[in-house]
Amino acid sequence: MRTFLILTVDGLTNGFIYALVALALVMIWRATRVINYAQGAMAMFTTYIALFLITHGVTYWLAFVITLGAGFVLGAVTERVLVRPVEGRPPLNIVILSLGLLIFLEALAPMLFGGQVKSFPAPFSRIDLAVGSTVLYVSPFDIFVVASVLAVMLLLTVFFQRTTIGLSMRAAAFRPEIARLLGVRVGNMLTIGWGLAAMLGALAGLLIAPAIFLYPNNMDEVLVFGFIGAILGGLESPFGAVVGAIVVGLVLSYVGGYIGSDLETIGGLVILIAVLMVRPQGLFARGRQRQA
Amino acid sequence: MLEVSELTVAYGGVLALDHVSLTVPEASITAVLGANGAGKTTLVRTISGLVKPRSGQVLLDQRRLTGRAPEAIARMGVAHVPEGHGIISELSVDENLRLGGLWRRDRADHRVAIDEAYELFPPLASRRSLAASNLSGGERQMLSIARALASRPTVLLLDEPSLGLAGAILAQIMARLRALTAERRLAVLLIEQNARSALSVADEAVVLSMGTLVVRDKAERLAGDEKLRHAYLGF
Q1: Chain B: closest CA distance from residue A66 (Å)
Q2: What is the CATH number of domain A2-125+134-278?
Q3: ipTM score of the complex?
């Protein structure tokens, strides 16, 4: 029972972080119909920015805010500089570009910040809370992770459902041509969408780095797990992506704890294959089928 | 006033519009008639900026529209109700409607315009929070027109609003359109295959054939000219 609780809390916390990456991928998929393979690398890079700031005397919280901003800028610039010029071209162009960006960032980071594995601070204790002598298996940092991810999801929901820009962005994602006829500046909406997605990624990087450390490809696995979560959710549905990513987090944690930590990654692929065999459209996809 | 002059559009090497000129004064409806493939849809898509012309220009009250992006043209007061109505079925009725003129600075008047649109088309008001995918064909067409009007346009481009509508609903929408044109001093360009219905509300009418403007006349005269009707309009 004790092991089960530990693994569950672990899996949930990781699942919430994968959910950020899954949400980022879904946002970009819905707006631009591509998978951004550089999503993880962008998050790695912004985490380095955070560490750089912190080691140069900036407080954690200020660095936290600046890093989220840097994530937005990185995403927005990526859309303007890399994605915009190949708009309307075959989707493979942008796939290659995002792979290129991934390689570029993973090469640039060690040049700027050094390639060795670095530890990354957590703003709260990672030691499990206890009431008297009963250990609760939940650390203050775990609570912070889950709370901040939930807060971000709430903010995103309000943003998309209740604001003018959010409505314009949804219109632009569903029917770009109709949106333009209605006066929506679709290009700007794409830029904001990429910025927000990269901001989610930046948050994921900040939240996972205390556990997995920081090195130039520390986000590779996180991207894969977030991607599996997004696919499980059907790639179209933000809600599905979150649920999918939490399922991935839990299953990986159980596989690692009960079977063997070497099998964790394979466990992720097994879930992916199993779900795709039973429900190729994903668990939460509505209506039309996904292509390719 | 909307002025189209010498507009020429080509897809690859094929001319879709060949030196087409027409004007639509305010508070009037001009019907654009012609067979499938005559260039009617190309004409409105070029006016709203979705298609770039090879030559010629479009002016709205002396301001040049040609060369601008569709979103900029929309913000200058040109509302385009596209063929097949262009309702975004993933969004609610209210969200679709609010998208009409969502860019406007005057938020208060935007809300007033939305309320007016609901008053004009009461069936929409009772379905406000439903997903637009639940609407019938007639209701979608109403929503599309209501959405265009909510942006307080000076020019209204309607591409085949009669498509898939039952006669009674069509007559109702056309009557509403006639009244609104006078009331809001709209310049309306009405693309139709259903010539009979279009001629019944239009002031002027033009006939496109293979990308060329072959007839331009008062709508009632065109409706009364049996030879022309037979040659171009098939009734």
Answers
A1: 30
A2: 1.10.3470
A3: 0.93
Whether the CB of A181 is below 8 Å from some CB of chain B: the reply is yes
Taken as a whole, chain A contains a residue count of 292
The residues, any chain, with a CB within 8 Å of residue B71's CB and separated by 6 or more, are: A180, A183, A184, A185, A186
Instruction: Round to whole Å and give the CA distance between A244 and A233.
Output: 5
List, for residues A51-93, the tens digit of each pLDDT value.
Answer: 999 999 999 999 999 999 999 999 999 999 999 999 888 889 9
Test mutation, B102, B114, B144, B149, chain A, max A CBs within 10 A? B102
Across the interface, of A167, A183, A186, the residue whose CB is closest to B75 is: A183
Rounded CA gap, A263 and A259, in Å?
A: 7
Distances (CA, A) of A289 to A93, A197, A285, B67: 23, 24, 8, 37
Select the residue of A164, A175, A186 nearest B102 (Cβ to Cβ).
A164
Contacts of A30 in chain B (CB under 8 A): none
Which residues in chain A are contacts of B101 at CB distance < 8 A?
A: 183
Distance of alpha carbon B227 from alpha carbon A181, whole angstroms: 38
Helices (H), B155-201: 167-183, 195-201
Distance CA A72, CA B30 (A): 48
| Residue A177: other Cβ atoms inside 10 A | 14
- Whole-angstrom Cα distance, residue B111 to residue B108? 5
Nearest-Cα residue of chain A relative to residue B83: A178
Would the pLDDT of A286 be above 70? no
The two tokens of residue A66 are 């600046």
Min distance A173 CA to chain B CA atoms (Å): 10
- How many CB atoms are located within 10 Å of the residue A55 CB? 12
Cα–Cα distance for residue pair B186/B26, rounded to 1 Å: 5
Question: Would you list the domain boundaries of chain A?
Answer: 2-125+134-278
What's phi and psi for A81, nearest 5 deg?
-90, -40
Rounded CA-CA distance A35/A12 in Å is 25
Q: How far is B99 from chain A (nearest CA, A)?
A: 7
Q: What's the mean per-residue pLDDT of chain B?
A: 92
Closest alpha carbon to B41 in B213, B160, B199, B140:
B160
Q: Which of residues 25-64 of B touch A (CB under 8 A)?
A: 48, 50
Quick: pLDDT tens for B127-172: 999 999 999 888 999 999 999 999 999 999 999 988 878 788 888 8
pLDDT at A39 over 90: yes
Element containing residue A150 per DSSP (H, E): helix A140-162
